[in-house]
Amino acid sequence: VDKPPIRRAAIFGGTHGNELSGVFLVKHWQENGAEIQRTGVEVKPFLTNPRAVKKCTRYIDCDLNRVFDPDNLGRTVVEDIPYEVRRAQEINHIFGPKGSDDAYDLIFDLHNTTSNMGGTLILESSRDDFTIQMFHYIKNALVPEPCPVLLIEHPSLKYATTRSVAKHPVGKYEK
Question: Pfam families from the xrefs (predicted)?
Answer without folding.
Answer: AstE_AspA_cat (PF24827)
